[in-house]
Design goal:
Order of helices and strands: EEEHHEHEHEHHEHEHH
Low-confidence stretches: none
Radius of gyration: 17 Å
Largest sheet: 8 strands, mixed
Helix content: 25-40%
Oligomer: single chain
Shape: globular
Mean pLDDT: 95
Number of helices: 9
Strand content: 15-25%
């Protein structure tokens, strides 16, 4: 039985995969996305909890899952704690629960055979593509975008259902040229079931203040409804 570092849980999630979901937020992330609204998940800490304990907690809400719901593991970055993730998903699958992984793919390494096990245990992957351009990805997150792109291709090659997510930030990720290049990349993938454009919001600013951290996007406004529609049109092939 594995033990993981858990930031928090949500019992009635409606935006992290299909249906009503029990969401587990893992502690720790190697990225420092400028628009991140959960800086409290970055470093060490969190509560040590066993996979068995979390499954028992999730099953208390099973009646709400219906036909489409289940459990989503998010972060932070869940792939930092891959052994725990595999154990948790294996226990959930034995209970017949739909499993969903919300990740940036930043930790992916195709030589790590544990990812073959992950493919067998995750029913759906929500893949956050931060930016399609390498230089812009590094400036936005502090990390290369090579691993996320490789993970997307890996999931496609192995037939794993994927929802692509892209956070839209004015002046950073809403460039039409970059959006079209992202659309081309998504078009190379065979298993994308859905594309979600997530408008940036500044609700995490107070967390930075409490942590004594400067807020990277101070003064940046959420994108207009027109820009959100524009991005959706490009990425979903309607514009």
């Amino acid at each position: 039985m594995e033990t993981g570092r858990i930031h928090s849980t949500e019992s009635f999630g409606t935006v992290d995969g299909p249906g009503i979901r029990f969401v587990v937020f893992m502690q720790g992330c190697p990225m420092r996305c400028r628009y991140c609204h959960n800086p409290d998940t970055w470093g060490a800490g969190g509560e040590a909890r066993s996979s068995e304990e979390l499954v028992k907690e999730a099953l208390r809400y099973r009646s709400y899952f219906g036909k489409n719901g289940g459990v989503t593991v998010s972060g932070g970055e869940p792939l930092l704690q891959l052994d725990f993730l595999l154990d948790l998903f294996a226990r959930l699958k034995r209970e017949g629960v739909h499993t969903c992984l919300d990740t940036s793919g930043i930790c992916f390494d195709e030589s790590d055979k544990r990812y073959e096990k992950l493919l067998a245990l995750a029913d759906l992957v929500l893949l956050d593509i931060k930016h399609i351009d390498e230089e812009a990805h590094r400036a936005l997150t502090g990390q290369s975008g090579a691993a996320p792109r490789a993970f997307a291709r890996y999931l496609s090659a192995h037939g794993k259902p994927v929802w692509i997510r892209h956070v839209l930030v004015s002046g950073l990720t809403d460039d039409d040229g970059a959006l079209r290049r992202l659309k081309e990349f998504i078009g190379e993938l065979r298993t994308v079931e859905k594309i979600e454009v997530l408008p940036y919001h500044a609700m995490g600013e107070t967390k930075y203040e409490k942590l004594g951290l400067p807020y990277p996007l101070k003064g940046v406004s959420p994108p207009s409804a027109e820009r959100v529609r524009n991005a959706e049109g490009i990425l979903k092939g309607n514009g």
